[in-house]
Amino acid sequence: MLFADREDAGCQLAQLLMPWREEAPLVLGLPRGGVSVAYEVARALGAPLDVWVVRKIGAPHFPELGIGAVAEGGVVYLDRHNVEQVGVSQEDVQEMVRHKSAEVAERVKLLRGDRSLPKLAGRNIILVDDGIATGGTVRAAVQALRAAHAGKIVLAVPVAASQSLAELEPLVEEVVCLKSTPHLYAIGAWYENFQQVPDHEVIRLLEMAAHQGFGPLPSSFQVDPLEPKNLTISLKRAEVKGTLISPPSPQGLVLFAHGSGSSRFSPRNRHVASVLHRYGLATLLFDLLTGREEEIDAQTGALRFDIDLLASRLVQVTDWVTDFAQIGTLPLGYFGASTGAAAALVAAARRPKVIRAVVSRGGRPDLAGDSLASVRACTLLLVGGEDHEVLRLNKQAYGHMTAPRKLVVIPRATHLFEEPGTLDAVARLAGEWFCDHLRRSKEMMSITDSANRRASPVHPTIGAP
């Protein structure tokens, strides 16, 4: 199941919540994305809508990994296991709790304004979010509602990690979830459009619900999904399929190199790409193998380790991109996964003046061999802390490289980054890396271009007065 956006998810969720319409519930959305889903639920049920502010406490250096949460009413939830795993001291935890408590107070004032919170005691509540990964924020929200003596609590979400959902079920009267999965990867992977919801949209939704009744969202506040452009790329001895997505005025273009049998439809890489779009980056996801080659690889597993073949295809697509009118002038980067990361490094070594940055997710850079020393692109190696053998191989490859590089270990992550929050950490770190190195490259290209224009002689136009 894939939701078009939060509004679509809210409409689908509302259908399962119709039996609660006669219970006169209060719908509470967790900001910010949960409010967009909750708005559709409240509109369908004819119920009042409000916001319930909760702030996740993220691990130092990896804020996507929740170690707890603070909710309205001063309720604090801490995941002792995660706190111990990341090695946070008690003093640091207390400081983060104080900081998050202040943030909760500020956001309550920002989002709710002068409106007072509706009466909660004895009131039936439908608590809505756009998805559940670890469940820490939801747990804190439920505990705060219990402390306020709320009546029955229904937890309603479009998608959730099944383990987290099982842990939350005993805390509420009912759970309504459209998709529960042990392989969540990241919440955004289940949405075609998962752009960040700005504060002004949350405020507008709440004001519309409170003062104007329920109607369609004003067009000025609609978030238009980025239109994908499906491509057929003709290479020397093959034809491959690709999907190009570009935000307005992109700062760079990232080509994805899949590995280990993945295709351009990989939910993990599609999620990373959607996050890169928020960083102002265009993405091109394409299949390194043809359809027939994928069938052969599925049976033998051999072609995914043919690094020379994969790198050659990537180089050809890179050359094709530089001739593509709409994106040919953008600074280029590679995002490689598994054996695709090795292909990305080999291709970067073959196109040192073209490729400015490389990010490897759970990659096998060791398979790039002698090409490692020839890579000139700034390279970020992202490896799961529990992916021990691949981590060892990345450390070896790191030692053979001479380009500017960084190795980052994602705590608690295994090879596929299936653990809640770990893929989001990958996406954020990749976005920051590409923004830093591709944007800087674009600025240098602009400076060079301007200097060349100033140095060029000006030729008078024939016939000019």
Structure description:
There is one protein chain. With about 475 residues, this protein is α/β, with parallel strands linked by helices. It folds into two domains: about 5-210, Rossmann fold (3-Layer(aba) Sandwich); about 230-450, Alpha/Beta hydrolase fold, catalytic domain (Rossmann fold). It has helices at about 5-15, 35-45, 80-85, 90-110, 135-145, 160-170, 200-210, 265-280, 290-300, 305-320, 340-350, 390-400, 420-455, and strands at about 25-30, 50, 55-60, 60-70, 75-80, 125-130, 155-160, 175-180, 230-235, 240-245, 250-255, 280-285, 330-335, 355-360, 380-385, 405-410. Helix 1 (about 5-15) crosses helix 2 (about 35-45), helix 8 (about 265-280) packs across helix 13 (about 420-455) and helix 10 packs across helix 11 (about 340-350).
Distinctive features:
465 residues, alpha/beta, Rossmann fold, disordered C terminus
Q: Overall 3D geometry?
A: elongated
Cα-to-Cα separation, first versus last residue: 66 Å
What percent of the residues sit in helical stretches (DSSP H or I)?
Answer: 25-40%
CATH topology of the largest domain: Rossmann fold
The name of the CATH superfamily of the largest domain reads Alpha/Beta hydrolase fold, catalytic domain
Helix/strand order, N-terminal first:
HEHEEEEHHEHEHEHEEEHEHHEHEEHEH
